[in-house]
Amino acid sequence: MDIPVIGVEEWLNAHERDAVWDLAQSTIASLTMEELAALGGDGDGLFEALGSRVMNYGWIEGSPDFKDAVASLYEREIPHGNILQTNGCTGANLNALMAVVRPEDHVVAEWPTYAPLYEIPRALGAEVDYWPIHEHLGWMPDLNELERLVRPDTRLICLNNASNPVGAVLDGEMLEAVADIASRSGAYVLCDEVYLPLEGDGAYRSMADVYERAIVTNSVSKTYSVPAARCGWVIADDDVSDAIRTMRDYTMISGGVFSDLLGTYVLRHREQIWERNRAIVRRNRLLVQSWIDGQPRVSWIPPRGVSTSYIRLDIPEDDEAFCLGLLERRGVLLVPGSRFGLPCGARLGYCTRPEVLLRGLELLGEALAEF
Questions:
Q1: Nearby residues of 157 by Cβ (< 8 Å), 6 or more positions away
Q2: What residues contact 22, with CB distance under 8 A and at least 6 apart?
Q3: Within 10 A of 298 (CB to CB), how many other CB atoms are there?
Q4: Of 184, 226, 235, 284, whose CA–CA distance to 73 is shortest?
Q5: Cβ neighbour number for residue 40 with a 10 Å cutoff
């Protein structure tokens, strides 16, 4: 398979261990095992359960308890057979795309966003057209452009809602319009929903609750602050789920006993995690906004209750060169916007712990003041 590197992953793999002040991550400040156990008071027997589990393959598709926890996230009733556990959301996207996309298929992908949503279909032999997001529209795409892109033979539309790295959210009304356009050609809509908005007016909905040919991917990595669990899931109809089952046998077999147990525990305590993380999002976004208000070379469109954001940098230097110098001289890590196809900016992982955010922004301001 001829496939390019994922720009953001290549950057993080090379540099994240060198960071003193890591402002590159899009997870909301990761929880410790002690913090997780405290969610249940006595941990709901979490450590005891981990210690007593037999280290076999576990439930191949995910345990019934895990599937119950996932199903409870959605408005409609989702049968267990349509919920498959994966190795994070990355594994969910890979297995779903391999199951659905065929050579010479036509795919429309939101762009720019997380590269696997358009690079995997292209590597599988599909013709991929981009549905662009627009900064002047608040990082929203234009539905008229989607109307023009979707053809009678379109197999799949790929979305990232909320969007990585810009943090924009397609509301339920827009998703219904996407579903209507997709239904005219019978296209599937794959929606990566790993960034759940933690605030808003209630207009957000999962694509699983909007469209019968939706394929929804998610995990406990970002909004739930437990990327170590490597526990994700994919929801799809019977035909796609059966095809994914075959792909999973080639790519992973099972998610693993620990991942299943941790993922289930996290989802059962999601209200407590959401409350914690909602406070982090609100507090840290205000800190960043206050900092930006005093920075003549930085602007942003504030993310809508999600942990990933993009800052525009008005600097006379390539964004990658700037970010590399920032890391080498000040220990601050950002992801260059060019790694997402958004040059002249950077992904700012603002939902880190406050002491890291504040010192990282202070040092970033010092670097910008040198221009």
A1: 107, 108, 109, 131, 146, 150, 178, 181, 182, 187, 188, 189, 190
A2: 16, 333, 349, 352, 356, 360
A3: 22
A4: 235
A5: 14
What is the DSSP track for 150-201?
A: --TTEEEEEEESSPTTT-----HHHHHHHHHHHHHHT-EEEEE--S--SSSS
User: Of 9, 173, 212, 186, which is closest to residue 106 (Cα–Cα)?
Assistant: 186
Structure tokens at 299: 């602007």
CA 284, distance to chain mean position in Å, is 19
Burial of 319 (C-beta count, 10 Å sphere; 0-12/13-18/19+): buried
Evaluate if residue 43 carries a pLDDT over 70: no
Task: Confirm if 189 and 215 have CB atoms less than 8 A apart.
Answer: yes
Distance CA 313, CA 317 (A): 10
Pair 267, 69: CB distance under 8 Å: yes
Q: What is the pLDDT of residues 162-199, one digit of tens each?
A: 999 999 999 999 999 999 999 999 999 999 999 999 98
Rounded CA separation 289/329 (Å): 25
354-369 and 270-293 helices, crossing angle to 10°: 20
Contact between 348 and 319 under an 8 Å Cβ cutoff? The reply is no
The answer to whether 338 and 356 have CB atoms below 8 angstroms apart is no
User: Could you read off the pLDDT of 58-88 as tens digits, one per residue?
Assistant: 999 999 999 999 999 999 999 999 999 999 9
pTM of the shown model: 0.95
Q: To which H or E segment does residue 332 belong?
A: strand 332-333
